[in-house]
Amino acid sequence: MKITVCIGSACHLKGSRQVVTGLQYLIAQHGLGDLVELGGTFCMGKCQEGVCVNVDEEFFSVSPSTVDEFFTKQVLTRL
Amino acid sequence: MRKFDTKVQHLKYKVLREVAREAWNGTLLENALDIPKKIVPGKQPTMRCCVYKERAILGERIKIAMGRTDDGKHVIEVIDIACDECPAAGYEVTDSCRGCLAHRCEDVCKRGAISFDHNHVAHIDKTKCVECGQCAKVCPFAAIANRKRPCQNACKIKAISMDENKAAKIDYDKCISCGACVYQCPWGAITDRSYILDVIDMIRESEGGKNTKVYAVVAPSISSQFAYAKLGQVITGLKELGFFTVVEAALGADMVALSESKELVEKGFLTSSCCPAFVKYIKSAFPELVPLVSHNPSPMTAIAKYIKQITPNAKVVFIGPCTAKKGEVQLEEVRPYVDAAMTFEELQALFDSRDIDITTLAEGVLDNASYFGRIFARSGGLSDSVKQALKEQGIEDFPLKAAVCDGIEACRTALLKKSKNLLDANFIEGMACMGGCINGAGCLTHGEKNKAEVDKYGMEAYEKSITDAVSVLK
User: Fold this and answer.
1) At the topology level of CATH, where does B196-470 sit?
2) Which of the residues A67, B35, B87, B445 has an alpha carbon 20 to 30 A from that of B337?
3) pTM (2 decimals)?
4) Does the beta-carbon distance from B474 to A16 stay under 8 Å?
5) Looking at CA atoms only, how far is residue B87 from chain A in angstroms?
């Protein structure tokens, strides 16, 4: 599985760093390092809906406060 | 508000704007020859002896505006028909000499080059004069003038001489493409080649991000430019032009600060590698010091490399204050990552070629880097960042002793001392332009307040530490 987090300016200001660190932590905690590839990109063209996150080409809007929920609902269920 | 410092910049801008306008329309080849008459209509000359000479010079400017990154030509070029062959006689006594009694000029001249005629008026014997300038300094009537060409005066590394026709001539083995002569020549006879046609082609071929994604990587000195609008409006303007997105070169600077501080601790001595003019100067004037140059890429290259790693169909255009960057992007080790470099002057021309009035646009955002990455734009900022990077990595037993070199003359002094093992420092921060990048030749405006603008922009960064700023890059 590939998760891509937008680290462009608009998403950065909405907390993409916190989203990235949150995901890194959760991936490590669940021991999913070999199954989930976490990457960055500079723009997904949906700046209004940031922080923009793609899971295998499917788009999600995540914020630092919804990282846990996103991970449980969208990441864990797909593995 | 004035967009440029000088009328020379304004003229250059008009040429770039018209060339770009035709290029966007795909009509440049048909209409290029009509551009001079568009810029200089009518029969009354406003710049030179006649409109025909004005148009002939414009023709040369158009050729230089139509450069291509791979044409192998020099970045800095003399337009010989535009060179006014300024007097270059050195120190001369002017008619302000009153033939006084004191004759301080004679007393101070160690070479005995000063004599007096029957009216007691001073004369300088050119065969004895060594151009030290002491006589000019002591004359109470300021009667001794230094007739040096502005270009030669600007070129502190002495790469400019005169050819057999008295036009300026650049020694390209020495030239570091810093652009000092470009900004200082009052006739606009020395100019920097433009690669905007490559940029326009890239944007046209990208078809709004469908085929390729053209990234604009902007230098932090942009904070002191386009003062008539807001920075956020410039960012929106870049997207209106057709850039896919805008990324701060300062994020590359954060990356460089971290790795450069590690390299410094490992090697014990380094010179910076951010300023391409400084690096080229070391290569040409101090080849024995080349092993001491940091192996880090410049911030521009570092961030471009990252963009290309994570985005397969990306093109990168660097936009900054610098003419030397146009040379850097042609280096073998940089070419795969940065597709073209352009200046703020050229960006203004591109905006207007598409009739984009940035003051009417909504404000976009630009925020990738930390305070420390952003202050690379001014002299001293790089050293502050390396110091901070050492601190953030918990390296406390390495005492950073930076020689902050503001301008190429200061760089030469430090390099000379280092080559003789007399330099009391373990890091040379070399910036070819006085004040740092904020005074680059490709800036729209140059001024004292630019440093304060960069510092303010730095303070506004969302990320407060280098480590936080780069933590999103994996």
Assistant:
1) Fe-only Hydrogenase (Larger Subunit); Chain L, domain 3 (3.40.950)
2) B445
3) 0.93
4) no
5) 52
